[in-house]
Amino acid sequence: MSPDWRRQGRLSAVIERVRGRSAGFVGARMDVATSAVWLYWHREVPPEAAERARAEADGGVVVELRTTPYALDELTAEAARVLRTCPAAVSAGPNRDYDGLRIGVNASETPLDAVRVESRMPVELMARGRIIPIRRG
Questions:
Q1: Residue-wise over 29-42: b if at least 16 C-beta within 10 A, else e?
Q2: Which one of 5, 23, 68, 124 is at 20 to 30 Å from 87 when CA atoms are compared?
Q3: Which CATH number belongs to the domain containing residue 54 in this structure?
Q4: pTM higher than 0.90 for the full model?
């Protein structure tokens, strides 16, 4: 097993321990190269998560706890709505900091500057290729 795989496994375990069963957890991301993790909660980081994060920092992992104005179900519902209502969108989901949406657009068919997305959340457009569904049978 490569050192990066081991480090990634270690960071995933840190995320799970810090997250625990805390209410309001939205998501996480990691940087294997710097041994850093970011965990996101809707509006407020629970005190028990902050306590667990301090304990993990002693193990050499940088743990940042952040808040976001949106719950995960809000982000998911808005991403689904954008996919239904914006013909140019080929993918949609939370952005990396969970404070808005990242919308993929087939830029070979629609230039990014021509795409209009109506959303109550901040939106970041990304050029994507054409999505080809895979079907069985």
A1: ebebeebebbbbbb
A2: 68
A3: 3.30.300
A4: no
Last residue of a domain, one of 53, 68, 83: 68
In total, how many domains does the chain have? 2
130 pLDDT above the threshold of 80: no
Q: Which domain holds residue 37?
A: 3-68
Domain boundary among 68, 95, 119: 68
pLDDT band at 2 (very low <50, low <70, confident <90, very high): confident
81-125 confidence digits (pLDDT tens): 999 999 889 999 999 999 999 999 988 888 888 888 999 999 999
